[in-house]
Amino acid sequence: MTTNADRFVAPHAGAGEDTRNPEDGTESQAAARLLEITARETDQWRSDARSEAAAIVADARNEAAAIVRAAREESERLVSSARDKGAEMTNEARVEAYRVRQETTALRKRHEEDVARLEQVATEHREGLRQHLTEMLGRVDAAGKTGQ
């Protein structure tokens, strides 16, 4: 800090007239030194600010990379889970399809057996009716021959 002891301004002297000794450069040197210190501090602050900004950017990049990694891991986990669930559902559908196929095969077999049994019954009834009609016609013929 400098003092203004080497400068005296008379209150009624010329407006802004400087009465200091022009050969004395201590004030100029002090101002230059102050500017030099300010410039050096400004450079240091700028350097510190750049370093801090670089650190913030690096931290942000690291955090972003961690978030991306976590998101990828989560998406891979979800995809894997979806695949597992899809495989499980496919297997369940196959089991159900097999069960339905077995049931329909058994039902078809029962129906085919029922149809075969009904065809056998129809054949027996047809033969029984044919035999009965043949007997009846034989009686009618016999009665017609005896009644003549």
Radius of gyration: 59 Å
Query: What is the CA-CA span between the terminal residues?
Result: 168 Å
What share of residues is helical? over 70%
Query: What order do the helices and strands follow?
Result: H
The low-confidence runs, each spanning 5 or more residues with pLDDT under 50, are 1-17
Structural class: mainly alpha
Mean pLDDT: 87
Count of separate DSSP helical elements: 1
Strand proportion, as a percent range, falls in under 5%
Q: What is the number of strand segments?
A: 0
* Anisotropy-based shape: rod-shaped
What can be said about the biggest beta sheet?
Answer: none
Written overview of the protein:
By secondary structure, the chain is mainly α. It has a domain at 26-100. The chain has one helix spanning 26-146. The chain is rod-shaped and about 175 Å long.
Helix and strand topology:
Blueprint: H1 26-146
Structure summary:
The chain contains one helix and no strands. With 148 residues, it is an all-alpha fold. The protein has a domain of 75 residues.
Features:
single chain; mainly alpha; about 80% helix
